[in-house]
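Changelog note: in this version the structure field was regenerated for every chain. One regenerated record is shown below for reference.
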Amino acid sequence: MEELRKSMFVALILAVICSVAVAYDPLDPTGNITIKWDIQSWTPDGYVAMVAMNNYQQYRQIMAPGWTLGWSWAKKEVIWSIVGAQATEQGDCSKFKGGIPHCCKHTPSVVDLLPGVPYNQQIANCCRGGVISAYGQDPAGSLSAFQVSVGLAGTTNKTVKLPKNFTLMGPGLGYTCGPATIVPSTVYWSADHRRKTQALMTWTVTCTYSQQLASRYPTCCVSFSSFYNSTIVPCAKCACGCGAHKSMGGRGGKSHSDGCIMGDSKRALTPGVNTPKKDGAQLLQCTNHMCPIRVHWHVKLNYKDYWRAKIAVTNFNYRMNYTQWTLVAQHPNLNNVTEVFSFQYKPLLPYGNINDTGMFYGLKLYNDLLMEAGPFGNVQSEVLMRKDDRTFTFSQGWAFPRKIYFNGDECKMPPPDSYPYLPNSAPLVTPRSLITAASACLLVLLLVMR
């Protein structure tokens, strides 16, 4: 009986640890999306609040069709109006005889407005279709905001009840939000920085991402090759699930796949093949790995003091392109990056002085858009790194990255024992050319001695 209790206690501890660690990213340990509510003014039956979503993740953005924010009201609150966003459903507002609220649902879901809406519906940092950039790539674009007028709510700091059960779709599953927490009121400075005001009340909600919650299978894979070995190490077979992989869907989360087509088939050239489906179903090119994205790392050249690697990213999804994509690599020689061609590069320092992680992303208006599968569905660059005599080697797979992330999701790596290996330093059989050269030298030496 005592052994059973111990086993149950250990299992409980492991479950708690795993549930906490599931949303932890070792390459971005402090990355999260923080949602801040600032009450700006009181109304006769509630308040007006500015809601701001700050993406503090270094390399994970929210792509189209954008974010969806949901919560549950603590009492019987309603949304009288929203500027810069809209609720997806109005709900039952039949009890209101005069003005009709914007949303009467107890569990509203709010989405961003599309670009180009009338100016009287806009507010600062709104109306980008729910797209939020990664903080490490574009800090100015990593914020989204809207203003909401809440009725049938408290009208003082003591009577306001905080919303609960927050959910965030970005655009699919993966995010888990904690409870709302009251924090010190936000301070605002005037334009001339001579006066400051503050919100009447502020609370925040923190949401973290877990790849395990987002998808059962990886969404990308990695392949290797090198100049010193003719072997090309491909992505692992069925690295992304071979048809069972669920794609990034619409606002409702994950959706099914419509199978795959051969890259040279007529269907790949038919009009409309690149049109996204409403349910987000992906259409992949038939491959051995069945991944939407493949990242290839090629050890290209070796110089006296430097070495060069080529990185190529290929899209195998006919129905999705990737705007403002990001690629993160972990490699010990990234502390000596000399030059990056065709990509932007930013070192990531999640643990202070350990400089072995970097983020690559496209040049604006040049290759920051990874097109759908096809002849233009790839981007590539080369990286020149300076050698460190204390650590540099081509043996034991050292020249290949330890981890690769694409758009914030970790890619499936090849097995370590399959990495391209260095050829033997000297063959057992002497080459014929070497014998010929030695014979010629011996003949010249005999002629001279005569």
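Spot check on this record: The chain has two domains: 33-213, 215-241+260-418. The CA atoms of residues 36 and 114 lie 22 Å apart.
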